[in-house]
Q: What sequence folds into this?
């Protein structure tokens, strides 16, 4: 080694002072030629050195070609990238030198790493921590420029590096015109939360682009058309509950609308009176026109929030057999009404949608047909995700379709049993529940099913067992049909045909009451599964009662919450498998794939559930919905919730597309199959996962190092 170093010193040119913050045209002062000469690149280094005094870079074409290989430049028009390259400067930095120091103000330039490797070092309370590593194709210096503040970390070259210096003013103007590139930059900054930075995202994209992908009919309708957009408030026709029926009818006729919304003094929805209701009650039944509209209004009102999925709302309307949905400020009847949408209104916003599949499912009878319909659901999900639609929205849409499928299979199985002389217990209320990922409305692929049954108790234990035998027999038929449609049986036995998952209301309530900080193993698994229960078929009141008891019990049990928090903190993300810089930071080991579901999505999923229990928020089912409710209701968690929701949305989409590509659940992921942009996004997402774990650790006083 000494001999090698001596040879090295004989070749190298004497090094000058180390670099401070870089400035345009200051290429010579960092010993750049020295290091590059040693690497056998003296001729290229000489060309760079000769161009130092030139006012412009002489090789813009080569720079443009390099930029176009990596995001966000690959998302920009080629002519825009050429403009950036024409104004670019070339920097060469030797190993060990700093590109900028922590606390230095940004110079107004973005640096593109064309060769080498750079580490971000965070000096905090006397300790230095390596928080990130930038490889070829990465962009340096964006965070400080976006926030317009001093650099929160130092950037040090750990290999001889060459960078292209680009005008931030020019790049920012280009990003403002390109949603896809701007979205990439948003995600690119997520790592900064680890060094105490507050990330404030710019406005959401106003358009959707699918660069390089042919748009089919479905995708073209999805392009900018997948959310509910309330119309001007002047269009909303309302009246009070005491208004006379005749007055309401006159307003409907004058405005030429199909209904009138009944509201209270705060414009909160109480009910809807449709023209059909007026005909039935007044014309047919002869009710006096002087009666109040409260006597004939339909209630409760189905409500949705602004900017929610128009397609999902359409499916809900079809499934519930209702003609209108009311748009309110927060999606509940407890806030002001903003608009009322009919099927026709939503069709104008959704374009092509899978609503037709609902009708097909309702009339299907054979197992082969159900499998064909499920294949089509997955094909639609793929096209939605390819078109850039939120995976969380796609999960909601698939949940509505799979719920309709389950309802249909329950009806067919009930008819089959009756044909064999077996009837469901007379007078015994019951309900089919989804739990697990389906309960959270996140089952896009036909992975293993998780379901359960609750039924009302009888007077004796013998009667309960007789009822259970019939319900498990019904469940076995439904599950056989689900398997024939392409779903997998749950390996853990979380299925309604299992007597442990087919229980009376009292049995479920007794188990829920037993959940405490001492549960472990199977008990803890059952608790977390039941926290996500959702009604699918049968008596909804039975499910609602269980759900309310679960939240009342868990939200008041701090030791139980700490027990759940410990499992979140212990589940470290697989950062050591996604790239060289992380492997070097955390150590090489493990297989070539990692468990994306458990180690990536798991902490975000469980933290959303835990924070919902802690803050007593039980209106949402999905992980994305829980984070969104937390963002809206708990201001101090708003930024964390926004980051976590985006991260989970990305992971859910990545897992689904991975599963569709491989023909399996998509649970495990080989990072070598990812594109450059996916690797960068995944790196940022795992930093968000760690940030969420730190928040859980702090909130619930959990020991351990993440």
A:
């Amino acid at each position: 080694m000494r001999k090698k170093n001596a040879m090295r010193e004989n070749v190298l040119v004497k090094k000058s002072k180390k670099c401070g913050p870089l400035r345009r045209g200051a290429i010579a002062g960092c010993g750049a030629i020295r290091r590059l000469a040693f690497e056998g690149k003296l001729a290229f280094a000489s060309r760079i050195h000769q161009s130092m005094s030139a006012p412009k870079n002489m090789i813009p074409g080569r720079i443009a070609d390099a930029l176009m290989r990596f995001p966000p430049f690959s998302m920009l028009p080629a002519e825009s990238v050429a403009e950036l390259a024409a104004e670019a400067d070339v920097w060469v930095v030797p190993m060990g030198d700093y590109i900028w120091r922590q606390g230095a103000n940004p110079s107004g330039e973005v640096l593109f790493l064309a060769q080498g490797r750079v580490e971000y070092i965070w000096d905090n309370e006397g300790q230095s921590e390596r928080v990130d590593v930038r490889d070829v194709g990465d962009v340096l210096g964006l965070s400080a420029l976006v926030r317009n503040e001093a650099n929160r970390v130092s950037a040090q070259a750990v290999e001889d590096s060459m960078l292209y210096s680009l005008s931030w003013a020019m790049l920012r103007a280009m990003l403002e015109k390109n949603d896809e590139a701007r979205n990439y930059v948003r995600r690119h900054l997520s790592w900064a939360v680890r060094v105490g930075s507050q990330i404030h995202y710019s406005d959401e994209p106003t358009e959707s682009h699918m660069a390089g992908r042919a748009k089919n009919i479905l995708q073209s309708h999805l392009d900018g058309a997948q959310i509910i957009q309330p119309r001007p408030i002047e269009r909303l026709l309302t009246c009070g509950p005491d208004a006379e029926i005749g007055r309401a009818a006159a307003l409907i006729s004058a405005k030429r609308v199909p209904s009138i919304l009944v509201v209270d003094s705060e414009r909160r929805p109480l009910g809807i009176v449709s023209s059909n209701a007026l005909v039935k009650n007044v014309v047919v039944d002869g009710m006096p026109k002087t009666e109040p509209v409260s006597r004939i209004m339909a209630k409760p009102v189905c409500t949705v929030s602004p900017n929610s999925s128009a397609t999902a709302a359409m499916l809900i309307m079809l499934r519930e057999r209702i003609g209108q949905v009311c748009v309110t400020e927060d999606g509940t009847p407890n806030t002001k009404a903003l608009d009322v949408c009919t099927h026709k209104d939503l069709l104008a916003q959704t374009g092509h949608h899978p609503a037709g599949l609902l009708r097909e499912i309702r009339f299907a009878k054979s197992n082969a047909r159900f499998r064909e319909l499920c294949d089509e659901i997955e094909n639609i999900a793929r096209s939605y995700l390819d078109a850039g639609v939120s995976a969380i929205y796609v999960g909601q849409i698939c949940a509505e379709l799979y719920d309709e499928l389950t309802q249909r299979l329950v009806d067919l199985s009930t008819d089959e049993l009756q044909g064999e002389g077996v009837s469901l217990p007379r007078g015994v209320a019951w309900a089919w529940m989804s739990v697990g990922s389906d309960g959270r409305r996140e089952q896009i692929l036909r992975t293993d099913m998780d379901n359960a049954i609750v039924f009302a108790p009888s007077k004796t234990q013998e009667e309960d067992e007789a009822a259970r035998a019939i319900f498990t027999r019904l469940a076995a038929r439904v599950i056989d049909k689900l398997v024939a449609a392409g779903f997998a049986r749950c390996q853990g036995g979380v299925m309604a045909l299992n007597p442990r998952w087919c229980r009376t209301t009292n049995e479920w309530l007794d188990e829920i009451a037993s959940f405490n900080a001492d549960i472990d193993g199977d008990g803890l698994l059952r608790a977390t599964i039941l926290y996500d229960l959702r009604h699918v078929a049968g008596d909804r009141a039975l499910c609602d009662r269980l759900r309310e008891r679960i939240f009342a019990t868990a939200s008041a049990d701090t030791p139980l919450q700490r027990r759940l928090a410990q499992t979140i903190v212990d589940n470290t993300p697989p950062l050591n498998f996604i790239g060289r810089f992380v492997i070097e930071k955390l150590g090489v080991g493990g297989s070539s794939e990692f468990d994306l579901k458990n180690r990536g999505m798991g902490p975000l999923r469980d933290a959303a559930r835990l924070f919902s229990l802690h803050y007593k928020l039980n209106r949402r089912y999905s992980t994305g919905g829980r984070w969104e409710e937390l963002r809206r209701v708990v201001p101090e968690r708003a930024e964390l919730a926004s980051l976590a929701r985006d991260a989970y949305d990305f992971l859910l989409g990545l897992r689904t597309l991975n599963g569709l590509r491989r023909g399996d659940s998509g649970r495990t992921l080989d990072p070598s199959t990812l594109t450059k942009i996916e690797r960068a996004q995944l790196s940022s997402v795992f930093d968000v996962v760690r940030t969420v774990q730190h928040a859980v650790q702090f909130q619930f006083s959990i020991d351990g190092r993440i």
